[in-house]
Amino acid sequence: MGRIRVLVVDDSAVIRQLLTELLGRDPEIEVVGTAADPLLAREKIKRLNPDVLTLDVEMPRMDGLAFLENIMRLRPMPVVMVSTLTGRGADTTLQALALGAVDVISKPRLGEQRLEEYAEELAAKVKAAARARVQSPLRCGGARPPAAPPRRPVPRGDRIIAIGASAGGTEAIREVLEQMPADSPPVVLTQHIPGGFSRAFAERLDRHSPLVVREAEDGELIVPGHAYLPPGDRHLRVVREGGRWRCRIDDGPRVNRHRPSVDVLFHSLAEAAGAKTVAAILTGMGDDGARGLLELRQAGAATLVQDEATAVVGGMPGAAVRLGAAQEILPLERIPARLLELASV
């Protein structure tokens, strides 16, 4: 396979030039063109036939979401959203991921960020997108009604469900939580997402799930019927205190280049909950969570991963399978019911 051909779409000439330069540092990536707005981008997509599109969320002449919806309907292709960290930008970006964008990265903040680290993250997301299974645009901001929860055994009160995901995970987690009943065992989550988007993500999940979904607070008691996400750019751990589980939030070092890290969450659960845990790794790039899932399995937990056919990016589930960490490999639509079944054993 030759170099990955990228078209950069952004209304800022400075950002277009910077993204082109940063992507050009990777020998596996070639920026074949840039466009200042969606109408120009549409013509260049036809002419240049790129493998991946980086797309600004808010642009002139055509709304970025409308352009993305057109792309996914007429010429589905991998798209990485490049978003501002404003509240409006976060909401729009989550809608873009629902429309089929593979991943999101914040816009580079000149003078506030080490560009070497940003370039590495950007290149990794573009490479993962090039290998992604592009989703159809049928899901638009949760327009579908939530699926009815399956008939299920009553879950035990001493179980905890843990889920980790990365690229493609915002929609995969939504689909899982939509089918979790209001009396579900507690759910702890780690999703790789830029820090400025975490609150909007938690609020979106809360709207679409019978569970109460919230950003976790340090020391907060973990109770049934609730799902907990780490706040932006923080690790979430679970600790056992006085016979109860509590959230621990910290800004410790990045693990596997991520904060929050799935491995951090899973390692803590192996110590705090062990065999009382039911854990799953969903779609995502890289291998974060694989070693933690193996530790959980060795501690007696039930472990499963999303299958390659339904994962947008199969990196994280595949890494767990190769380590022998996964007891079961299931399509996404079967995971919610199986998590509940395992939590009732």
From TrEMBL:
Residues 153-345 form the CheB-type methylesterase domain. One of its GO terms (cellular component) is cytoplasm. Residues 137-156 are annotated as: Disordered. The modification 4-aspartylphosphate is found at residue 56. It is found in: Cytoplasm. It comes from the Bacteria. The keyword Phosphoprotein applies. Its EC number is 3.1.1.61, 3.5.1.44. InterPro entries: CheB-like, CheB_C, CheY-like_superfamily, Sig_transdc_resp-reg_Me-estase, Sig_transdc_resp-reg_receiver. It is an enzyme of class 3 (hydrolase). Phosphorylated by CheA. Phosphorylation of the N-terminal regulatory domain activates the methylesterase activity. Keywords: Chemotaxis, Cytoplasm, Hydrolase, Phosphoprotein. GO terms for molecular function: phosphorelay response regulator activity; protein-glutamate methylesterase activity; protein-glutamine glutaminase activity. It catalyses: [protein]-L-glutamate 5-O-methyl ester + H2O = L-glutamyl-[protein] + methanol + H(+); L-glutaminyl-[protein] + H2O = L-glutamyl-[protein] + NH4(+). Residues 5-122 form the Response regulatory domain. PROSITE patterns: CHEB, RESPONSE_REGULATORY. GO terms for biological process: chemotaxis. The active site is at residues 166, 192, 288. Pfam families: CheB_methylest, Response_reg. PANTHER family: PROTEIN-GLUTAMATE METHYLESTERASE/PROTEIN-GLUTAMINE GLUTAMINASE (PTHR42872), PROTEIN-GLUTAMATE METHYLESTERASE_PROTEIN-GLUTAMINE GLUTAMINASE (PTHR42872:SF6). Belongs to the CheB family. HAMAP family: CheB_chemtxs (MF_00099). Involved in chemotaxis. Part of a chemotaxis signal transduction system that modulates chemotaxis in response to various stimuli. Catalyzes the demethylation of specific methylglutamate residues introduced into the chemoreceptors (methyl-accepting chemotaxis proteins or MCP) by CheR. Also mediates the irreversible deamidation of specific glutamine residues to glutamic acid. Contains a C-terminal catalytic domain, and an N-terminal region which modulates catalytic activity. This is Protein-glutamate methylesterase/protein-glutamine glutaminase.
